[in-house]
Amino acid sequence: MPHTKNKQIIGLFGFGVVGEGLYHVLQHSHTTNATVQKVCIKDPQKKRSLPSEKFTSDAGQILDDPEINLVVELINDAEEAFQIVSQALKKGKSVVSGNKKMIAAHLPELIELQEQSGAALLYDASACGSIPVIRNLEEYYDNDLLLSVTGILNGSSNFVLSKIFNENKSYPQAVKEAQQLGFAEADPVLDMGGWDSLYKLVILALHGFGTLVKPSEVFITGISNLNANDIRFAKEKGYRLKLVAQATKINGKTFNLMVMPKMTTEDEYIYNVENEYNGVIIEGSFYEKQFMFGKGAGGLPTGSSVLSDITARMHGYRYEYKKRKYFSIPKHTNDVTVKVYLRFKNLLDFSHFEFENIEERFSSNSYNYVTGTIKLTNLLHIRKLIQTLDVFLAFFEKPGPNSLSVHR
Ligand code: HSE
Questions:
Q1: What is the CATH code of the structural domain delimited by 8-122?
Q2: Residues of the chain above pLDDT 90, percent
Q3: Residue of 185, 195, 278 with the most ligand 1 atoms within 8 Å of its CB, for mutation
Q4: Of the four, 10, 104, 144, 151, which is 20 to 30 A from 360 by CA?
Q5: Could you tell which of 99, 181, 191 is best to mutate to test the pocket of ligand 1, judged by most ligand atoms within 8 Å of the CB?
Q6: 100 is catalytic
Q7: HEC per residue, 116-141
Q8: pTM for the full predicted model
Q9: 92 C-alpha to center of ligand 1: Å?
């Protein structure tokens, strides 16, 4: 029998793919002592699968309802989401959110709001869909043995890469499918450009290492410019391209974050992660490598992660951000060197990249590529420019004995 204590009376914001997924999951969870009292939506005209009395477009009907003790925020717009979440916390209502962009952009304020109000904010659904990576980083990996967190954090781009690589589908066709299946963000550039992975990585870095990193301090590049030449290069050399986000300790005092397509090899765990699945490799001293794998996108898998945060609130769970309190936390650095593949069309585009060392060079009338090592600081410096160039960039595991090497 569900107990009545700690009943979660939920005010839900958003009834899109994940909101509806959560509703469905909740109906099937008989041990969860929670009920959705009201759903706040933007478009009251849209046909819904629930009776109209459940819906409102007035946020106040949730935020000002004293009976509602948990706000679940599952809307697209990050700034609107921040307004909702901060108002709810200020009113003492705990919140569950899946909005990685909002969370990554506002972590310092969100931590402070929780401290001031005593209310809690949980967001395991914001990273890697159904994989419980945040709570594990927070609770299990609560010591300084953790060395890196690397993985495929975005389901849509992985789905697109699988469709292109394994089924020879075109890029636009694969993106359209990812949208139709409800994996992709409203603006798929967020997925394909690496932004979604970046926001998730910033959140994982906080819970893994205790450090707050601004998204603008991280180098990212995605798969939007991928073309047939890049796929041929990867296939001929036995690689599979994956969009990888990684947080890597460089030494006891520093770590690096970056998001970039990677030429993965058969011996890597993520090589076989396909479609909308995500895979996260956690590496640490003494335990070496561990691998978490599961569905990273989709209404029901992500809804199940939201459900887990709801049940966690039933038991009064909150993130303590322990590493921030008890560790001397490492600093983020971009002072590392990476080995990359760069495909480009003209020498002017190439001239922006200051390679340390070039290993391989290929030129033809239609395209060119080089492989070699480059400083991440150079790539970060031209991050915005890269988005405007006809180039594709991917990295390889190792420039030398280490995947990232430090400049001393
Ligand atoms: N668009 C996201 C993805 C949804 O494809 O991973 C889950 O965060």
A1: 3.40.50.720
A2: 93
A3: 185
A4: 151
A5: 191
A6: no
A7: HHCCCEECHHHCCCCCCHHHHHHHCC
A8: 0.95
A9: 29
Query: Taking CB atoms and a 6 Å cutoff, what residues make up the pocket around ligand 1?
Result: 129, 154-156, 183-185, 191, 196, 296-297, 302
* pLDDT the model gives residue 398: 63
Cβ atoms 313, 8 nearer than 8 A: yes
In one letter, which amino acid is 16? G
Distance 295 CA to ligand 1 centre (A): 10
Contact 398, 338 (CB under 8 A): no
Report which ligand 1 atom has the smallest distance to the Cα of 302.
7
169-225 confidence digits (pLDDT tens): 999 999 999 999 999 998 999 999 999 999 999 999 999 999 999 999 999 999 999
The CATH T-level fold of domain 134-295+329-406 is Dihydrodipicolinate Reductase; domain 2 (3.30.360)
Cβ–Cβ < 8 Å for 89, 115: no
pLDDT confidence of residue 402: 42
The mean pLDDT of 117-141, rounded to a whole number, is: 97
In the chain, where are the structural domains located? 8-122, 134-295+329-406
Strands, sheet with 121-122, edge to edge from the N-terminal-most edge strand: 55-56, 34-40, 8-13, 70-73, 94-97, 121-122
Neighbours of 250 (CB within 10 A): 21
Q: Which atom of ligand 1 is nearest to the CA of 126?
A: 8
Distance between Cα 369 and ligand 1 center (Å): 31
Task: Examine the pLDDT at 327 and tell me if it is beyond 90.
Answer: no
Q: Residue 264 pLDDT > 80, yes or no?
A: yes
